[in-house]
Amino acid sequence: MAAVVALIPVDLQAQTPPPPTPLPADSLERPVIQELPAMVELPVIEVIGRAQGSVLRQTGTVHTLSLEQMETLRPISTEDALRRLPGINSKTEEETAIVSNIGLRGLSASEAKSLLLEDGVPVAPGLLIGNDRYFNPRIQRIERIEVLKGSSSLRFGPSTIGGVVNFLTKTPEEGLLFSGRTGSFGTRELMLEAGARSSSGAAYGGLVATHAQGDGFLDRGYKMNDVMAKAGLSIGNRHRLGLKLSWYENDANISYRGLLLDEFRAGVTNNPAPDDWYLTDRTAVDLNHRFEISDGATLTSVAYWSNLTRDYWRYNVDTEASNAAGRWVYTDALTGNNRSFDRFGVDTRLKFGHGLFGLEHDAEVGLRGFYEESDDRRIRATRTQDRTGTNDRHRIDSATSLAFHLHNRVQLSDRFALTPGLRLETYEQERRVLTSDNETVGTSNTELLPGVGGTYSLGSSAQLYGGVYRAFSPASNGVALDGMTDQLLEAERSTNFELGVRGSQGAFDYELALFRMDFQNQVVTGNTDPRLSQSNAGATMHQGAELALGYRLAEGLGLSGNVTWVPVSRFESGDNAGNRLPYAPRVFGNLALDFQHGPVRSSLLLHHRGEQFGDETNLREIPTNAAGGIWGGLMPAYTTLDLTAQWQVGGSLSVFGALKNLTDQRYITGLRQGIYVGPGRNFEVGVRQAL
Predict the structure, then answer these.
(1) Residue 168 domain-assigned?
(2) What spatial distance separates the first Cα and last Cα of the chain, rounded to whole Å?
(3) Among 46, 97, 109, 314, which one is most buried in terms of CB atoms within 10 A?
(4) Could you read off the pLDDT of 205-217 as tens digits, one per residue?
(5) Is 158 helix (H, G, I), strand (E, B) or coil?
């Protein structure tokens, strides 16, 4: 396998390519918090923050994508954007990534070992009850992405073994902004952003609304509407209130099934499951409050609620006929796996400074609790029944979680700061089967997670950082309570280590991090392969390195990239000891060449993903038959090349475009009841107008 270094576009004007440029050592001192200005700022929980020096206060690896960088990348989904960052591998099932599939640092892209947030609020439908991948925030509403790995991620949970990803949503400027784009595969998108403030600046309201539809690569069409409304109010100089309402619906012609091997070899581009549909609706409410108690103490809180319904209608297959035909042959039997998810919770965090023992301290104390529930119905129907039939399995999964964390950063010298932390998570899970006389089973667990990290300034242009911490990911209801029996499964526990250096010298920026994740009892679930035992699978090991570089070659010309190398991602015990974990490529990365001259900006973007296995047995040959679906096989490495450009026509009008997969590379993104294929050569053009 060839190792290819990789990408984040350089900001040629501000010269802020990732990693963010460290500040002089004296900037590490705790800033004095001033009273808030009269202009309202919507309060949200940020993972990293945007204040000067906020990156340098983190004891783990930090990467961000700004709105300007995303406009350069022209991503079609949040996963399309995330795969450009170090350490993140995606297993996209279709190009708009309606279903989430990302893995960090050699962890499988099909399992929940990293926490996804939107404005600090969990977005997965079920953190404990399962089905965490069934909602993925739409890229159109996002203005910034934060990724935090290492000991700093202990401030959040659960499932932060790989790290934390926080999608920060747009707060539209005053006025109107219209944008639209069209492109290959029948892609059409219209978006409106609108914002207004009161004359005093103490009240704000805004809206981001998107309609998008397309035929989709492999004819996996979709029709999506996404509306997000925001409002904010300042009460005096110390209180801020924020309200976010969002509604999302997406009817997508997608399925679990991909192409059979002969179809893939023949270059087939038809939908392998043309009558299967994935129907999603989601409504969510976030209520935020920030209270500047004093110049050195701030209380930030959010109360949240969400409801998601996901109806998945799939036709059964005739396996024998499928094998004979070399393609999926469907029967008239229709199954609807239809689920609805509700969650409500509260997260509150107090940050304050103190001077214990004559040293400067910054502390954070947090409390988070939530309740989530899913209503799971399996409808048996036929082609003529039009999605109505018999509910032969009706179960209610629920879970309650309470977490507490305490972190204290102490400045031991001008150069050295140490941050010990502790997180306590306790949770209860329950499954009730209504079609079995309300049969009920439950389980509970408590996790104590210590950690410590530190930073050391090597001068004005470099900083060492690192830490060691305990992380966990809970077994979902379907695993922990499989067979209506408490399986007595412990949560996945991992001891994580990280050591890194970040800095800048002139036009050169860099970050290098070494990491190790040592699982004592990794839980292997059926998300990747239902043949895997739903149990504690024993020890696994993940270790490697991430490197990100940026260099300003000349005025208006920049080169940047990143590469992740994971030489070890293997089972340490059990039947598969010594094998590599599924969906864990040894090498993946990006490279970008950015050019800007006056109102024109263009980027040439390269993405590489190394070969990876599709199952735990490390099967090398992809099966040719349809029996039991296609789960295993070695997926070859691939490299794609994109070209993007944008032109600021005037002060308020811009046009943009992209040519993606310039070489028309045909590549495999994943295996799950068939072969998932990445989109071929495609284009998009668009226009943006502010009023």
Answers:
(1) yes
(2) 50
(3) 109
(4) 999 999 999 999 9
(5) coil
